[in-house]
Amino acid sequence: MVQASPKVPQSIMDANRYELPDQTMQIAEGKLPKDLQGHVFLVAPVGTVKSKGLPYNDGNTFLNGDGMIYRFDFNQPREVRWKQRLAKTPDYKVDEKTQHIPLLRFRNHGLIRFSWLLGSRNELNTGFLPMKFPGESHERLLVTYDAGRPYEVDTQTLELVTPIGKLNEWEGAIDFPDYPFKPILSTAHPVFDTYKHEMFTVNYARTLSQYLNDIIRKLNAEKAKQQEQEKHQRLSVICELLEQVLNGKFWNNDFVYLMRWDGTGELKKWQLIHPNGSPVTIRQSMHQIGLTEDYIVLMDTAFTTGIEQILTNIPDIPLIDERKLLRIEPSPDSTIYIIRRDDLQEGKEKVVAQKIVIPLEASHFLLDYENPGNKITLHAAHICAWDVAEWLRKNDRSPYDTSQPVSPRLSGTQQSPMDISRMGRYVIDVNNLKVEENKVNPDHVISDRDCTWGTGLFTYLDRLPSSGMTPKKLDNIYWVSFGLWEELTTESMREQYEDYPYREVPLDEVLQLAKEGKPSCLFRLNTASNESMRIEDSYKFPPGHIALSPQFIPRTVGEESSTNGYIMCTVFTPDRDEIWIFDAEKLNDKQPLCKLYHPKLNFGLSLHTTWLQNLGPAQDKYRVSVEEDYPRSILKELLKFVDSLSSLDDAPVPRGGQDLKTELKQEIQNLFE
Question: Which of 30, 32, 20, 21 is nearest to 79 (CA)?
């Protein structure tokens, strides 16, 4: 008799937004190791000012939401302290103030939160980057997001300190209208070189102007039959704005800028071009970038987020099937760009990026710092046939019986993969790259029928505690896998990946395995060489549990090796959110060393983590003030734009006697005073 698939834990389906001072975690099982040290930071999206937490009533994705920063302190004997605070950018505060103003209000558009008259929210809900520049007494910390500038965090208070780069140092994905909160595409994983003391990030855009005619036509058709006044007015403004963008050719051309920062000055940036001089373009996203001693490596990652989210997920106004209106499906291949760091010279505006393509898609990858003989070693988790930018929607159907909906209680969370994930290790010989080849052969790609279903988040010994330096070679990486769940398997994803070109497990078998269920796993991948690459240790979580957000914590004693420490991860149980701690050298013990919880700890779909050995006050040598970022000229341009909108002229005069355009301009002035 085939065992039924376990139920997805209900604890992954909600999150609170309480900002809490120091709390003491409670031990559910086991004992705390005595040689834990330092502080683990975790970030997770926790809904919006309107939703007051998760889930969303309309079933929107949990990946959209204000970032909650959590800090777990392991610096006291026999206890773990924890605190949490929301990442409150200037646009967060405007989001709060505009909830009662329909035409200014920010709304969820799939993965992006957006206002048609104010721009995009920078939700800072995805990752972290520790940095320590020369002369500094302790590490600084950035919190990051794919669709916004990174911000520095005060590690003691968890308050935001400053954005990195003034607003005018970043290019928007569109340059009309002149939004006060312009849509910015970057990476959730900037990188820091601990040896050369340089931070790198990216700023890019990809045009969608070729789709605008079709979108405007569908929006106008919807507007013509819309009876509700507020929705009709909003559609009128949206259509007029998009027509101005299309007719005025205001959509920015495709570009990719590589940006370097020294911790105090302005961002230095270079546009990336191909050897023939044409600009590098990104089809999906640049969720992660990497560096070695001599190279910067960028990847067009299989996480499709961008302006198309705004156009295809208009709240309260479904347009036929939003998945088919403008859907950028993930590429089954990974396109990689390699830039020589020596080419990043002052005075140059453009640098050449060499392009290669690796079969199989990825959203996360890591690099060995050393590149002997100009050979780059790249480690990738290939999320095969898994569209991580998609989510379970209220109208999704079961692939086992398409007349039946999937469970409505799970709307907004991730879907199950449609093939097994694979772990890749590649050695790229930069000296022998030929532009016409545009490909590299895999040295080693492996999978495991138990462990590698939906392999996404990772951790490793990224800095040696004694020196703060990055290890020059990665020999062990810890990964967690999502598992395979019948409740999260949908007809839309079955259809999307029916003809997946790199299939390892037949689709019918994937569907059958999902009915039985495959567990979420934590495993250690030995990556020292192609010959030794294998899963050496693993832990299968119990049925009905999902693990996310692993973090390596070095021991206070013993050698600084890549396994001498502990792994902390978030675990969603059938009853609550918990923190589990494992011995990094012995994952396959029957139980973790310790399970922690607190009645107020409720973090939803947690994402990335980092570890700091010590905390310190925020630095004061680099600050971008709100006044610098948002001068009065931005307000003037916004008011001028609102004045130009003819769609506001015919609006009914409200009871106060003031026309809508005048009232709207007054509301905008109040916001920016």
Answer: 32
